[in-house]
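Issue 218. Parser rejects a valid record. Input:
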Amino acid sequence: MSDDAEQQAEEIEVLKSIYEGDENFKQVDAKSYQYKYIEGDKSFILEILWGPTYPTEKPSFNLEIFYNQSLLPSVKDKILSIVNAEADQWVGCAMTYTLFECLKEKVSEILAEQMEEAVVARVEKIAITEQTESKKPEKKEQMSKAQKRRAWDRAEIGRAGERPRGWDWVDIVKHLSQAPHQPS
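Output the parser choked on:
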């Protein structure tokens, strides 16, 4: 067993013992781990993926999870820059716990930007809906009984609700002129 594999096995045991009972931690498989950060009504999930030579190389980070679809791109970039900077310091050591904890300390600062931009977007959306709602609905033209009767008589359907004979017939000459002629 290689040194990297031994360190990975040891770190797996440590992570399981530290995060036992923590609902925010999830081991997806032997080489990928997720942690859910919550601040008020905002939250996100960071996924850390170990490569075959982890911890001698830094792991990869994933925020492109369905749960994170509401995160603004600027917030995602900020999270990734913080985690990458921290990971660069810990190359060669077990760092998954350290990276998760580093973000825990900064989660309120990170999500504050998300909240500010979300409030601006919400205010713009409200302003747009107010502009569209200010239009008055158009009134239908009121017709007298005689006008309605004439309209029915002009339509394809008569007063009795029956359609005139042949209303759905196909014009054979027109139909045949549309189909290409192929000699047999």
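Fixed in the parser; the record now loads. Helices lie at 3-18, 73-89, 96-133, 145-154, 172-178.
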